């Protein structure tokens, strides 16, 4: 049986922060948010500002995102899920079994 990787996970982002909300999602740390922001910039080959990214993920502005990076506020699941998807971590809101089934059907 072939093994199918669900996400391109690295050690800088905890698996719990990449779960669907109903399956035990834990908010990411500021370090994890910064890492995903950096990955987004590299992956998209764009020099996104915090304001650009805040607009992309539906936050009120760069100051709200900065508070999350500084661990003074937690980022909400919706904005985090969009950020992860854009950075290449996949659709974290989907159940892992659902993702696996979709990938197998696409073959």
Account of the protein in words:
This protein has 107 residues and is an all-alpha fold. It has a single domain (23-105), classed as Orthogonal Bundle (434 Repressor (Amino-terminal Domain)), CATH 1.10.260. Helix content is 48%, strand content 0%. The protein is built from five helices and no strands. It has helices spanning 30-44, 50-57, 62-69, 77-86, 96-105. Helix 1 packs parallel to helix 4 (77-86), helix 2 (50-57) crosses helix 3 and helix 2 (50-57) crosses helix 4 (77-86). It starts with 29 loop residues before the first helix and ends with a helix.
Describe the SSE topology.
Blueprint: H1 30-44, H2 50-57, H3 62-69, H4 77-86, H5 96-105
* Second-tier CATH architecture: Orthogonal Bundle
CATH topology: 434 Repressor (Amino-terminal Domain)
Radius of gyration: 14 Å
- Taken in chain order, the helices and strands follow as HHHHH
Largest sheet: none
CATH level-1 class: Mainly Alpha
Strand percentage lies at under 5%
Number of domains: 1
Q: Which residues sit in consecutive blocks of at least 5 with pLDDT less than 50? A: 1-8
User: What would you call the shape?
Assistant: globular
The overall pLDDT, averaged over residues, is 86
Structural class, from secondary structure content? mainly alpha
Distance between the termini: 14 Å
The percent range for helix content is: 40-55%
Strand segment tally: 0
Number of helices: 5
Features of the shown structure:
107 residues; mainly alpha; 434 Repressor (Amino-terminal Domain); 5 helices; disordered N terminus
């Amino acid at each position: 049986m072939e093994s199918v990787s669900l996400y391109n996970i690295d050690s800088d982002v905890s698996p719990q922060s990449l779960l669907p909300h109903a399956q035990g999602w834990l908010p990411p740390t500021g370090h994890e948010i910064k890492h995903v922001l950096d990955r987004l910039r590299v992956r998209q080959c764009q020099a996104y500002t915090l304001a650009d990214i805040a607009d992309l993920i539906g936050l009120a502005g760069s100051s709200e995102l900065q508070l999350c990076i500084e661990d003074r506020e937690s980022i909400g699941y919706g904005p985090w899920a969009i950020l992860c998807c854009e950075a290449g971590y996949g659709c974290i809101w989907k159940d892992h079994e659902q993702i696996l089934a979709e990938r197998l059907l696409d073959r």
